[in-house]
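Morning F.,

Quick status update on the modeling queue. The single chain you submitted on Monday has been processed. Sequence for confirmation:
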Amino acid sequence: MHIAQVSRSPVAGVPMNLARVLNKYGPHTSTWVDVNNVDEKVKYELGHADIIHWHNWVHPNLWKKTQSKKHIIHYHSCPSNLDIQPNIPKGIKKLVVGQYHACLNRYKDYQVVRNIVDIDPILEYEDYTCSLDQERLIVAFSGSLKEFGVWQRKGIEQTHIVMNRVQQLYIPEELCGYCIR
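C-alpha cells below.
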C-alpha cells in the first residue's frame, strides 16, 4: 500500500517525517508531495497512491481527479492559523492533532491523533546530538515561532524552566550549552 502525504507547506516537517516513519517501520510505502506546483511528479504520486493523506488542506481539483482513492484530511493547527476549508468533501476521514485546538468545536467530529516522532533522525543533526558515555538524555521540543496567544506557544516558557532544571540536575556542565538550545 502506498500513502501520499500531501501539503502546501512543510507543516513543521510532519508530512515528511510521517512518510519517513511509515517507510522505516511499516509494511507500507509513503512519500511527501508538495502541491504548490502541480507537475508530473505530483500527478504520478497521487495516481499511484492507495491513500492520499492531506495535511491542513485538500486541493479541490486534485481531490476531484482522485475521488476513487481513499482520502484523509489531517489538521495540525488551530483554525485561525489556517485557511480552513468550509466544506471538506464527503468521504474524507478527518483527523486532528491532539493539542489544544482538538478541543475546539470546529473539530468536534474529527478523530484526535498523536504526532508520530521518530527520534533516530534527530540524532543525525549535530545540533541535537548529545552523548554521555553511551547513555543519552534526548528531549525534543518545538514551541511556536509566532505569538498568537498563550496556548499556541505550547507552553514554551514553562518547558524552558523544566528543561533548565533537567539540565542542571543531569547534564555535565561542559555539555550544557551544547545539548539544550
